[in-house]
Specification:
Elements (H helix, E strand, L loop, with lengths): L2 H14 L16 E4 L2 E5 L12 H14 L14 H14 L6 E6 L2 H12 L4 E6 L4 H10 L2 E5 L4 H10 L4 E7 L11 H10 L3 E5 L14 H4 L7 E6 L9 E6 H10 L1 H4 L6 H15 L1 H22 L4 E2 L6 E7 L1 H13 L2 E2 L2 E2 L9 E6 L6 H23 L1
Parallel strand pairs: 2-12, 4-5, 4-6, 6-7, 7-8
Antiparallel strand pairs: 1-2, 3-9, 8-9, 10-11, 11-14, 13-14
Helix pairs in contact: 2-11, 3-11, 4-5, 12-14
The structure holds pyridoxal-5'-phosphate.
């Protein structure tokens, strides 16, 4: 078969299984109200949890960064691309999010995907065993594969199963890897137990706080701060394109771990540093997150989360028990999930249908992502539309 024929057959298969993904084109800034594919929409799709993506102070910081440092970095961090803006941001992040370890240092990456590949490939290798939660993000799964470590997947959040696996392992280097807030379920990993297991077994614990940084813990310092955890064995990855509203990611850990990454992490070394203007804007975002405005936004988000939990329980579908800004509603079949997402879209609401391979087969879902930019009136619209969709589904089911 010709290569193109193979791809066309593969795409037909994707269609037949209701798995075709489609990009929406957005003409307005990321906010609660957006113009998407030419239509006015209330967005519940972004990870802009604090509503900072179009905040005037961040837009101004981006412009100021560009004025001061230009548009591009010009090189990789080790070969001429590491600007004062990157260095300042790393200091800011170490101070803000590094409180879980003595001598913290932070390293800035252009994306969270790269940060996860970097950490796992630099800390794990042949002879390492990597223990990975079954629902970890794709970037952790890919990083684990690329590391060539032996990979053992433990059932989601099951610390007893993990403990048994660690007991049975005679690997010299062990690395436990987990999301903090699971991106498609919104639940929080049993972090205190994971830290305890890591210390008992002399293992590293790598946590990906993509959906916790900025939202959880005092001043939004993240899931580790929320649980008041400290351990030299901890390595934190935080992303900066979600609650922080800009882009990029960081790794925070003991300074020795970070220096090892600078020397050895290929996804850090062999890529052009992101624009210094972006780093400058992220520094402004960290200040916003940590200040009174961050507190007010987190408090508003919390009330929206409470309301959404109640409204999802009124539908005929299965809400996941999530106390975070990620509020999933599991529908099951791909086609049914797509149909409900389409009905919501006709009502002017953008709630994405999440399907395999992002979630396990048979657990397709609507992923309602809340933001401090949403108003109570926005939630009223969502509530009414979900009630209609749920009543329709029940009528269909009764036929
Ligand atoms: C849990 C988790 N980790 C890492 C990433 C990747 O971060 P980035 O989008 O900055 O590449 C994402 C989402 O994008 C995520 O949900």
């Amino acid at each position: 078969m010709q290569l193109l024929d193979m791809l066309e057959e593969g795409l037909r298969d994707i269609d037949a299984r209701g798995l075709r993904r489609r990009r929406r084109t957005i003409d307005t800034p990321c906010d609660a109200h957006m113009r998407v594919d030419g239509r006015d929409t209330i967005g519940f799709a972004s990870n802009d949890y604090l509503g900072l993506a179009s905040h005037p102070r961040l837009v101004a910081a981006l412009a100021e960064g560009a004025q001061r440092y230009g548009a591009g970095s010009g090189g990789s961090h080790l070969l001429g691309g590491h600007s004062r803006a990157h260095a300042q941001l790393e200091d800011d992040l170490a101070e803000f999010a590094g409180g879980f370890v003595d001598a913290p240092r932070a390293l800035y990456f252009s994306t969270g995907y790269m940060a996860n590949l970097a950490v796992l490939t630099a800390l794990a290798g042949r002879g390492t065993t990597l223990f990975s939660d079954a629902l970890n993000h794709a970037s952790l799964i890919d990083g684990a594969r690329l590391s060539r470590a032996d990979i053992q997947v433990y059932p989601h959040a099951d610390v007893d199963a993990l403990s048994a696996m660690l007991d049975a392992s005679d690997s010299a280097v062990k690395l436990i890897v987990s999301d903090t807030v699971f991106s498609m379920d919104g639940d929080v990993a049993p972090l205190a137990r994971l830290v305890e297991l890591a210390e008992r077994h002399g293992a590293w614990l790598v946590v990906d706080d993509a959906h916790g940084f900025g939202v959880l813990g005092p001043e939004g310092r993240g899931a580790l701060a929320q649980a008041a955890l400290r351990s030299p064995n901890l390595v934190l990855v935080g992303t900066l394109g979600k609650a922080a509203g800009v882009s990029g990611a960081f790794v925070a850990a003991h300074a020795t771990v970070v220096e090892w990454l600078v020397q050895r992490a290929r996804p850090y070394i062999f890529t052009t540093a992101s624009s210094p203007a972006v780093a400058h804007a992220v520094s402004a975002s960290v200040k916003l997150i940590a200040g009174d405005e961050g507190d007010a936004r987190r408090a508003h988000l919390q009330t929206l989360i409470g309301r959404t939990r109640t409204m999802l329980k009124e539908t005929c579908w299965l809400p996941v028990d999530s106390h975070t800004a990620v509020q999933p509603l599991v529908i099951g079949a791909n086609d049914a999930t797509l149909a409900i997402a389409a009905a919501l879209e006709r009502d002017g609401l953008w709630v994405p249908a999440i399907r395999p391979p992002t979630v396990p087969e048979g657990t397709s879902r609507l992923r309602i992502s809340l933001s401090a930019a949403h108003s109570h009136a926005d939630l009223d619209r969502l509530h009414a539309a979900l009630q209609r969709a749920s009543a329709d589904a029940q009528r269909e089911g009764a036929r």
